[in-house]
Design a protein that fits this description.
- This protein has 277 residues and is an alpha/beta fold.
- It folds into 2 domains: 73 residues, Alpha-Beta Plaits, CATH 3.30.70; 152 residues, Vaccinia Virus protein VP39 (Rossmann fold, 3-Layer(aba) Sandwich), CATH 3.40.50.150.
- It has 7 helices and 14 strands.
- The strands form 3 sheets. It has a 7-stranded mixed sheet, with helices on both faces. It has a 4-stranded antiparallel sheet with strand order 2-3-1-4, with helices on one face. A 3-stranded mixed sheet has the order 5-6-7.
- The radius of gyration is 18 Å and the shape is globular.
Length: 277
């Protein structure tokens, strides 16, 4: 399959990159690689058209300076590429995250095998890292869990290994859906249901724990839905945003009976734990 890549340079970087990724995702771009100066966005060539960027509002904003280059990428064996670049990690000396071609480490409590391909969620990104830490602090035995924006399925898989006996994993990206299904099977998980879709799938569903590692704009839009799908005294874990976005996230959560309990921070990225009261 042939892809096109857009290499964006953004000033100011942090807020601009987050907004741009959100808008490009709505326009059909299906994966992103953050760089020191911006982001590289990928889209299938057969889904591209000349007016693709016309509705990307941030490109017209005087508050940001954004330039880009575009190139065609020939079909790539993503497994080989990940073998070159994906190194195993261990979080808090308890959770191992590795690819199938890595040896299993000794003396870890949880071993997660993830082949990420083009999906988000290897544990290397700061937001996935802090979400793994939050989940590791929870008792998930016999809990009903939702992993919203599941990417590779890594957090849903970890939830099952922590004892959750019913997990829904949802992503609106077809590639992420397929990758999550593969990783669920690879980790011999039997309690995870993977769906392609968005928060509209949550109608009439109730969970003990909801995980959403997405981005600021989607979180602000969907916090109301998450709260409606959470049991009283249930746990909501949110990440995918920067330290400076935390007040806005917490203010929106407070509107829907969600109380901040604590948060974890890593390289200016944040993961916040809420309880529904």
């Amino acid at each position: 399959m042939i892809y096109l890549s857009y290499n964006f340079e953004i000033l100011p970087l942090e807020l601009g990159r987050e907004i741009l990724i959100a808008e490009l995702g709505e326009a059909g771009f299906e994966s992103f690689t953050e760089t020191e100066v911006g982001v590289i966005a990928y889209i299938k060539k057969d889904e591209w058209n000349e007016t693709l960027l016309n509705d990307i509002q941030i490109l017209e904003s005087s508050a940001f300076k954004i330039s880009y280059t575009k190139e065609e990428i020939a079909q790539v064996n993503w497994n080989i590429e990940w073998e070159k670049n994906f190194n195993p990690i261990i979080i808090d000396e308890k959770v191992s995250i590795r690819a199938p071609f890595h040896a299993k480490p000794e003396n870890v409590e949880y071993d997660l095998i993830i082949e990420p391909k083009m999906s988000f969620g290897t544990g290397h990104h700061q937001t996935t890292h802090v979400m793994v830490q939050h989940l590791n602090d929870l008792n998930l035995t016999d809990k009903k869990v939702l992993d919203m924006g599941c990417g590779t399925g890594i957090l849903a898989i970890f939830a099952e290994k922590k004892g959750a006996n019913f997990i829904d994993a949802i992503d609106n990206d077809a590639w992420c859906y397929e990758n999550s299904v593969e990783n669920v099977e690879r980790n011999n998980c039997h309690h995870i249901n993977v769906y392609e879709g968005d928060a509209a799938l949550l109608c009439d569903k109730i969970y003990d724990v909801i995980i959403a590692n997405i981005n600021r704009n989607i979180l602000l839009q969907d916090i109301k839905t998450y709260s409606a799908s959470l049991k009283k005294e249930g746990v909501l874990l949110l990440s995918g945003f920067y330290v400076e976005d935390r007040p806005a996230i917490e203010a929106e959560a407070k509107k829907y009976q969600l109380k901040k309990v604590n948060y974890k921070e890593r390289d200016n990225w944040v993961g916040v734990k809420f309880i529904k009261f």
